[in-house]
Design brief:
The chain is an alpha/beta fold. The chain is 50% helix and 14% strand. The strands form 2 sheets. Strands 1-2-3-4-6-9 form a 6-stranded mixed beta sheet, with helices on both faces.
C-alpha cells in the first residue's frame, strides 16, 4: 500500500486514516511525516475555506488504530529516532491546534504514541474490546511525548499513576479512566462517530474555533517548547543502554518462534 495516510473530505468532515496495515499502523518515520503533512494540509484547507472542513476524524485502517512508534525500525539509529520523535510531537501539537473539533475513532489497539493520538483529540470513540494504554516503561522507554497530553486529558495524578504503572487496558476501562469520551458496542462505532460528527456540525464554526483557542490557552496546549523538550527527552532515554537492552530483548522474544512441546 503506497498511501500511508489517506485524506477524504465529505460533507464538512475530514477523515485522516492511517493505512500501514501490515505493521498495525505503527508510526514509522515515513508515516509520521505523511501524518504531519496531512494535518498541515487540513489546517490550510480550514484557513482558506472555513466552511469546507467543520470536523476532523482520525482513524486507522485494519484491525489496529495505531500500535505506537515503530521502535524496531530505528532501534540503533539515535539520530533518526530523535528526528522521528520531534516530528511526532509537533504533529500532535498541530492536531491539537486545529480550530475545529477532532475525533479519534478507535476501532482497535491504540498503544503508546497511538494512544497519544487518541488523547490529543477533543473526543474519542472506542469499544469495550479495544486495547489502549502506555506500556513504554515496560520497555525501558520514557513516554514523554504523550505525557503532556495525557495530563491535560485525565489530570496530573491519574496520568502519573497510568504512565508509571505502564501496561494496557480494555476500551471500557479506558472510558472509565477518562482516556476516551465514548465507549459503545463494536458494531456501533461508526454510527456513533457519525452521530457525534453531525452533532458538532450544528455548532457555529467561529464559536467553536474561539472556544478551542481559549481552551488551548487555559491548559497550555499551545506551548511548543514542552513538545520539543518532551521529544528530546524520549529520544535521549531510548538511545541509552537500559532502553536498548530492554528493546533488544523484547524484539528478540517476539521474533523467536515458540519451542514445540509434546
Amino acid at each position: 500500500m503506497d498511501e500511508l495516510v489517506h485524506l477524504s473530505i465529505e460533507q464538512g468532515c475530514a477523515t485522516i486514516t492511517l493505512r500501514r496495515t501490515d505493521a498495525r499502523n505503527a508510526l514509522s518515520f515515513e508515516l509520521i511525516h505523511a501524518l504531519a503533512s496531512t494535518i498541515a494540509q487540513v489546517s490550510a484547507r480550514i484557513t482558506s475555506a472555513p466552511h469546507e472542513v467543520r470536523v476532523v476524524v482520525i482513524a486507522g485502517e485494519g484491525k489496529s488504530f495505531c500500535a505506537g512508534v515503530d521502535l524496531k525500525a530505528v532501534l540503533h539509529d539515535a539520530l533518526r529516532m530523535g528526528g522521528m520523535l520531534q516530528q511526532l510531537s509537533m504533529a500532535l501539537l498541530a492536531l491539537r491546534q486545529l480550530p475545529v473539533p477532532t475525533i479519534a475513532r478507535v476501532q482497535g489497539a491504540a498503544i503508546g504514541g497511538g494512544c497519544g493520538l487518541v488523547v490529543v483529540c477533543d473526543f474519542a470513540v472506542t469499544h469495550p474490546e479495544a486495547k489502549l494504554g502506555y506500556p513504554e516503561v515496560d520497555l525501558g522507554v520514557c513516554p514523554a511525548v504523550v505525557a503532556p497530553w495525557l495530563v491535560k486529558k485525565i489530570g496530573a495524578g491519574p496520568a502519573r499513576a497510568m504512565l508509571l504503572a505502564g501496561g494496557t487496558m480494555r476500551g471500557d476501562e479506558a472510558f472509565n479512566r477518562g482516556l476516551v469520551t465514548h465507549c459503545v458496542a463494536r458494531d456501533q462505532l461508526e454510527s456513533t462517530t457519525a452521530e457525534l460528527v453531525a452533532r458538532l456540525m450544528t455548532g457555529g464554526p467561529h464559536a467553536l474555533a474561539c472556544t478551542k483557542r481559549m481552551l488551548n490557552e487555559l491548559d497550555g496546549s499551545n506551548d511548543a517548547r514542552i513538545a520539543r523538550e518532551a521529544a528530546e527527552l524520549s529520544a535521549k532515554v531510548i538511545a541509552g543502554p537500559e532502553a536498548q537492552a530492554h528493546l533488544s530483548r523484547h524484539f528478540q522474544a517476539i521474533s523467536t518462534p515458540p519451542t514445540a512441546t509434546r
